[in-house]
What we know:
Distance between the termini: 45 Å
Helix content: over 70%
Number of domains: 1
Order of helices and strands: HHH
Oligomer: single chain
Amino acid sequence: METTTQSTIFGDYMKTLGAKLPGFDLAALRESRRKDVAALASIGLSVLDGAQAFGQKQADMARAAVSELQTLVTQKAEPGTAAGAVELLQQAFQKTLANLRELADIAQKTQAESLATISKRAAENVEELKALVKPAQ
Length: 137
């Protein structure tokens, strides 16, 4: 019994498809699919970069929160520092809001980059499909 690889089967299928559909540009179809895979890889890298930036920012926020908590505990131990503690809490709250805005910006930027890549590739696919469907002249 003869074994065949998937690439051989696919290659045979594409040859048969090309024979059945004269004027159908298989090379253009393969190139189009290659561009699709490249776009997906680009999106994957963009999402990975965004996730890393998001994780790094969260880690920085956690370190800052622990440091501020240590400062607050130290001040609490000292008599007469209640006003300073309230001010420190207000500053911590403002910093937390700013950090949350920054996290939202990172997530939005990552989504926008991914969507732009997808939109660009979709538009290219439409143009490639139009070119493939055009009758041979």
